Amino acid sequence: MQILKARVEAISPLTEFVYKVLLKPQQDAEFSAGHYLQLVLGEKDKRAFSIASSPSNKQELELHIGASGADSYAMQALEHLKTAHIDGADVDLEVGLGVSQVRPEQARPIVLLAGGTGFSYVKSMADHLAEINYDQPVLFYWGVKEESALYAKAEMEAWAASKKNFQFIPVVENATDTWQGHTGFVHQAVMKDIISLEPYSVYMAGRFNMIGIVRDDFINHGANRDFMYADAFAFIK
């Protein structure tokens, strides 16, 4: 873990409820793709957020914060960041946390699965895998409630087009009649597309209750628990 001070460079809306935050650390940030950071609000008050940016960009940290409700966990953190941005003050960070970073040395096909703003966790991995020219198949599934929540759809379509072994598959739970892609629950789309998950390494992020269900269903679909990664595993049975 690295303790850093950082300046809040920008805060901008991605959707009605999701904000992109750019932080400029006072020194190079050291982390792996799939790590998270903690925003320190107090000695015993630290808020965890996945790092959306690639570890190759050590001078800027990108967060995607889904925040709604004035007193919510994320909204309180966002207000802290907004105040620091207005005041030109630094914020305190703990960077490089987590045990679910991408492991390209395994040289296995990869499924990246994100529910909602879990997107930021796997986006860092996706960008890193592109940068190192990873030569195994990488399937990026992003599940959202409505089409409007696919705030990075064009960006990820460009990512997929950059390598013949990359695919981006958005999945909309409550799709309109005009939606042309997958519908329903994101992990069920994975199981529909892939006969067996046995050869894959699987990285996933989303709500804890979702991750527990996905883990169990994927194991029943052939996934090897030793090659499944989510920081949520530490908090669920």
From TrEMBL:
GO terms for biological process: bioluminescence. Pfam families: NAD_binding_1 (PF00175). It comes from the Bacteria. Residues 1-104 form the FAD-binding FR-type domain. InterPro entries: FAD-bd_FR_type, FNR_nucleotide-bd, MRET, OxRdtase_FAD/NAD-bd, Riboflavin_synthase-like_b-brl. One of its GO terms (molecular function) is oxidoreductase activity. Coiled coil: none annotated. Belongs to the Fre/LuxG FAD/NAD(P) flavoprotein oxidoreductase family. PANTHER family: NAD(P)H-FLAVIN REDUCTASE, NADH OXIDOREDUCTASE HCR. This is NAD(P)H-flavin reductase. It comes from Pseudoalteromonas luteoviolacea.
